[in-house]
Amino acid sequence: MALDGAGSIVRELITAIVGHREFLSEIDGLIGDGDHGINMAKGFSGCGARLDAMDASQAAQLPAALQQLSQALMDDIGGSMGPLYGSFFQGFADVLGREQEMDAALFGQALARAVADVQEMGKAQVGDKTLIDTLAPALQAYRQSLQAGAGFREALQAMEAAAEAGKESTRHLQARIGRSARLGPRSIGVLDAGATSCWLILSTMSQSLQRRLAQASA
Predict the structure, then answer these.
(1) Distance separating alpha carbons of residues 38 and 206, to the nearest angstrom
(2) Residue segments in the chain with a per-residue pLDDT below the cut of 50
(3) What pTM was estimated for this model as a whole?
(4) Contact assessment for residue 201 and residue 13, using Cβ atoms and an 8 Å cutoff
(5) Which of 39, 54, 64, 176 could form a disulfide with 59 if both were Cys (CB 3.0 to 4.6 A apart)?
């Protein structure tokens, strides 16, 4: 799949996050400050403005669009989520920026780099009730799918399913990191907002890529 012309994937991510702004803030309000959706929508909308200001041919390049998304999130979102998500998309941009085409192996490398960067920055582990509970199983499922001989589309589907299961797993976890950790056992029974927005991002990315792969093979 050509990276030139795939910058519209970032536009689809913007639409998904902004469209779920109230949903994400509602989840966050149960055990947090209730502003996760508002902040995420602010950062992603800021990326949209940056892309609008760019030369159209440059904005159409997926690595360049991801770079703009990373910078917008770091600049426009306060707290920990801006740097965490900024590093996530920067990891993708760094790996993809050296290439012209993306296949299943390259996407796996970019995803692995992005997840590693988030873990390095946030220090969270699976079970801490954070976005890592979505990211880690999604990466593992993607890798295992490829190792089993699956194609790009099938591996993306495995990643998406694992991301959703990981997001759902946070409902039964006690928060160990962040402000919600102060609630102790009272944090059990509610989805983690970061894990939920991460699932939305991976799901949207997966579906966007699958559509392009299907069009390319038609």
Answers:
(1) 24
(2) none
(3) 0.96
(4) yes
(5) 54
